[in-house]
Structures are given as structure tokens and as C-alpha cells.
Specification:
Layout lengths: L2 H9 L7 H12 L10 E4 L4 E3 L13 E4 L2 H6 L3 E2 L12 H15 L7 H8 L3 H12 L3 H18 L4 H7 L5 H11 L4 H7 L5 E8 L2 E7 L4 E7 L2 H11 L5 E3 L1 H16 L15 H10 L8 E2 H7 L6 H9 L12 E2 L12 H11 L4 H14 L1
Parallel strand pairs: 2-4, 5-8, 9-10
Antiparallel strand pairs: 1-2, 1-3, 5-6, 6-7
Helix pairs in contact: 4-6, 4-7, 5-6, 7-8, 12-17, 14-15, 16-17
This protein binds zinc ion.
Length: about 375
């Protein structure tokens, strides 16, 4: 123990913690708990340094550690700030506090035109200085921060089902063209499509058994938006999340089991899928390929070049293969019926072995009976 520190303790208004509370703090230190940063610092008598709880440095021995509510108190007790975790940067750093205040102000004025001049006046700084401080702390400019908040609000509102125009207005976008210019890069599609395809429409899905392993069927109010196969439900749900990251996704095995029965029935050739409504996005070319695929009869197959010729684009066999590979609804758009011209099966989005199984079922293999009996089980539910 360092006696200099011991003697100092006597005249320093140090917060004497309850032993219980200290245990709690020590646990936070042992677990490098970031959530505790700013709530207290810990000082190490063997090094004379104090740290924030999340400091990545090696953990000291318990008997060398004392706790202080604030960096200033640790310093009055003779400890130096750790250069690695900079505990002072968190508590009472005036620059940080000010940037925080600027952020709050921006958030409360998103629906107004915010200029640096206005922010400068509000916070008593030159626009240049304010921008530089802001960027030094957050890494982005106030304008970029305002835009990211607007985009965030906009997404929230769309998710909550507001119309695009209304959400746009609420999020502080003053004109449609401004929003479009921003979202073109940030969303990757137009807002109306974004809303239709991905956000506002809640998506319900079922995970069920099929002759091809686990199957996920998802639908919006308008129709089926996704049919996928995988070995495990977690994979299926992860895939759905990636495909519709902003949608409200809800598993609903009960009401969708009819639909699952129909798709399993379609696999076994006892159900027609032509009546099933689809809600999928497609380019003009994909639409042509996919609707042609739906005209191929159960048990029939075509080559990629056949399809290209049939849709009037004889040189587009590769593009046809790509359209097959990006089919969002297995079986209902029977892309498995398209093979290579040399008789090989070719690729399949959900695994070549599943394509083989489907083709064997359709050729009347023993799996066909299994598919049919599985379909009956669904219908009996
Ligand atoms: Zn440290």
C-alpha cells in the first residue's frame, strides 16, 4: 500500500462506498462493463492510475482498487488519468456536453431548415468553430447528423404505417424531390416501393415441414412474398429478416397452415398454385421469366435457352438463369423446372439436392406419395 495515498485519504472528501455497492462496482470492472462508464472510476494503488470501468487494461488485484464517483475525486486523491481509456473524456467534458446539447437541439428542430449560422447563434459560437467541435466529437457534421435523424424518423413513421407524404412531412423533409434525392442512395429504392415492399405491410409467416426440409412461407396482406427452404427455422427466419429488414415480421403458424398445405400439395402435384396471390417485386425482365415459368406444367422441364427463346430474348439464357436464381417464391414460381441444355440440373437457390428431390417427385418418384400425404396432414389441421 502506498502510504502517501493513505495519508491523503484523510483530508479528501472521498465517497466512502458501502461494501455491497463496491462489490457491484468491482463486478462491473471485472466485466469491463461499458454501461458503468461515467458512473464511477476505479483507481489502482499499485500504478497510481485511475480508469473507467470498461478500460481494456489488465484487471488489477482487488485489494489495490478503490472507487471514486468522479475523476476529479480520484485526482484529488493523487491518482493520474489512464491514457488508454481517458475516463475524463466521459464525465464533465464540456465539449462533449455541448455537442450533446447541439444534438438535442437538432432533434427538436428537424422540421425547420437548420443552418450552421442558426446553430452558431443558438450556442454562441462561430459556425466554423461549432462545426469543427461537432465533427471532432461525433465524426460527422451537424447537417449529416440532422439528415440521419430525419431518415431514422422517416423509417419509424413508415414502419408505423403512415403514408409516405405524411411521414415525409413529419420527418422534416420539405419537398418530395429532396426526399427522393436522399433516399435514392440511402434506401436503394423509391419510398413508395420501399413502403409497399418492405415496411408498412406487416409480414406474417409460417415455418413448417415439407418434403424438402423446413419451409418458410411469408405473406403480406396482398399475397405471398417469400417461400424458402432450409434445414433449420433459425436460418429461415434470418433469411426473412435480411430480405425484409424493416417489415414487422410475425410468425403465425396457426392461420397460415392452410397456405403451407397448399404449397406442400403443389410440391406433390395435387394442388394448383396458379390461384395463389403473390406480392413480389420484379424487374420487367424477371416478370417475363417468372410468369413464363408458371406456365410450365407439373413434371415438365425446360432449358435456360428454351425459356430465353420463349420470352422472345433468345440470347438472354444467362439472364434467365439469374432470374431463376433470384426467384423469391420457391415452387409457386417453379424455377426448379429449368435445367441446363445438356440435361444437367443446374443451380438452385435452395440447394441443388432440393432441386433434384423436386424433379424426382414430379417424375413420379416415391417422394410424390410422401408429399401428398404430408399435404393431407396440413389440410386436416
Ligand atoms: Zn484505463
Amino acid at each position: 500500500m502506498n502510504s502517501a495515498i493513505l495519508s491523503l485519504e484523510a483530508d479528501v472528501p472521498m465517497l466512502k462506498m458501502q461494501p455491497k455497492k463496491d462489490d457491484h462496482r468491482w463486478d462491473a470492472v471485472l466485466s469491463h462493463d461499458e454501461a458503468s462508464d461515467g458512473k464511477f472510476v476505479f483507481a489502482v494503488s499499485s500504478t497510481g492510475v485511475y480508469c473507467r470501468p470498461s478500460c481494456p487494461s489488465k484487471r488489477p488485484r482487488r485489494e489495490n482498487v478503490s472507487f471514486f464517483a468522479r475523476p476529479q475525486e480520484a485526482e484529488r486523491a493523487g491518482f493520474r488519468e489512464c491514457l488508454r481509456c481517458r475516463p475524463r473524456a466521459l464525465a464533465g467534458n464540456p465539449r462533449q456536453q455541448q455537442v450533446k446539447a447541439i444534438c438535442r437541439f437538432i432533434e427538436q428542430h428537424l422540421d425547420e431548415p437548420l443552418t450552421l449560422t442558426r446553430l452558431g447563434e443558438q450556442f454562441g459560437q462561430s459556425p466554423f468553430h461549432l462545426q469543427r467541435t461537432f465533427k471532432a466529437v461525433l465524426g460527422i457534421t451537424p447537417r449529416e447528423y440532422a439528415n440521419s435523424r430525419r431518415m431514422h424518423d422517416f423509417r419509424q413513421k413508415l414502419k408505423a404505417g403512415h403514408s409516405v407524404t405524411r411521414a415525409m412531412h413529419d420527418a422534416g423533409y420539405s419537398s418530395t424531390s429532396r426526399l427522393y434525392s436522399r433516399t435514392a442512395s440511402e434506401l436503394g429504392m423509391e419510398p413508395a416501393k420501399y413502403r409497399r415492399g418492405a415496411i408498412a405491410a406487416p409480414i406474417r409467416y409460417i415455418c413448417a415441414d415439407s418434403p424438402l426440409g423446413r419451409m418458410l412461407i411469408a405473406r403480406t396482406e396482398k399475397g405471398i412474398c417469400s417461400i424458402q427452404f432450409a434445414d433449420r427455422d433459425e436460418e429461415l427466419e434470418q433469411g426473412l429478416k435480411q430480405e425484409f429488414p424493416y417489415a414487422m415480421r410475425r410468425r403465425d403458424d396457426e392461420t397460415l397452415s392452410d397456405l403451407a398445405g397448399k404449397v406442400v400439395g403443389a410440391i406433390g402435384g395435387v394442388e394448383s398454385t396458379s390461384s395463389l396471390p403473390l406480392d413480389i417485386r420484379a424487374t420487367a425482365f424477371q416478370r417475363r421469366v417468372w410468369s413464363y415459368l408458371q406456365s410450365i406444367e407439373f413434371g415438365g422441364t425446360r432449358s435456360y435457352s428454351d425459356v430465353a427463346r420463349e420470352i422472345g430474348r433468345p440470347s438472354a439464357a444467362r439472364a434467365v438463369a439469374r432470374a431463376c436464381a433470384t426467384n423469391p417464391v420457391a415452387v409457386v414460381i417453379p424455377c426448379h423446372r429449368v435445367r441446363r441444355s445438356n440435361g444437367e440440373n443446374g443451380g438452385y437457390r435452395w440447394g441443388v439436392h432440393r432441386k433434384e428431390t423436386l424433379l424426382r417427385i414430379e417424375a413420379g418418384g416415391p417422394q410424390k406419395a410422401a408429399a401428398r400425404s404430408l399435404a393431407r396432414q396440413f389440410q386436416a389441421l
